[in-house]
Amino acid sequence: MKTTVLANQKGGVGKSAVAVQLAYFFHLIMGKRVLVIDFDHQRNSSKALKTGGIATVSQMPASRLLTHKVGGVEDAEFVLVAADNAELLKMEKQADRHNSFASNLQSFLQAVHNDFDVCIIDTNPNPDIRQLSSLVVSDYVLSPLQLNQEAIDGIGDLLNHDTIGIRKIKAAINPKLELIGILPNLVEPTPFQRDNFRELSTHFAKLLIPMDVGFAAIKKTTAVPEAQAAGVPVWKLGKTSGRDAWTQIKPVFEKIASIMEVQ
């Protein structure tokens, strides 16, 4: 099982939409057994996957994967361990249990390692123990971001934050952790965003996801939020906008799968 965590220290970047649509891609297009864990108390991934009814929703809440030793999950090809708002919000204040949270999550992933091909973990944008635990146990991290100066300036924290910086975690705790890349999302064809993409490509080219031409990015479209609201893969939205969006998104997801060595 290959585990990837979607992490960003800023909300509103469309992270959950990427997580859900990527999960649909792995399961419905690639035919993989997929586990989705939602640690974001906003529960956007959980809402979309529950609405769609394609995934089996575990009876176990996501917080339990951190607070207890869990030895398994429902026997299904596509499983969601959904976020539970109240308990997840309590995590950061339980400092004396933080080490056990990461240990419990790692134990769970080891227990289900042979039951799934891919695990996708959606995290909250705050640099807290939920995000840290996820980074400590994952193989890969994917970081969607919007093309604004605040987000670009935040790339340094993503890499070098004292607590959840990817480089620090890789060096000190989880040497297998690899950055798939920064993924510009909700990209609009405005001069402002083009300039920011150019700056990103100039200064952070090694952190972007290379494509045959240029770097991976996902354009802003009404189709993705509509698909999320309906709980369906964007290519099954039944609209021209959905098909057009998928034509642009599919090569990006195929590249991510290649980097993760999911075949």
From TrEMBL:
It comes from the Bacteria. Keywords: Plasmid. Residues 1-178 form the AAA domain. SUPFAM superfamilies: P-loop containing nucleoside triphosphate hydrolases. InterPro entries: AAA_dom (IPR025669), DNA_Partitioning_ATPase (IPR050678), P-loop_NTPase (IPR027417). Pfam families: AAA_31 (PF13614). The keyword ATP-binding does not apply. PANTHER family: COBYRINIC ACID AC-DIAMIDE SYNTHASE, P-LOOP CONTAINING NUCLEOSIDE TRIPHOSPHATE HYDROLASE. This is IncC. The lineage of its organism: Bacteria, Pseudomonadati, Pseudomonadota, Betaproteobacteria, Burkholderiales.
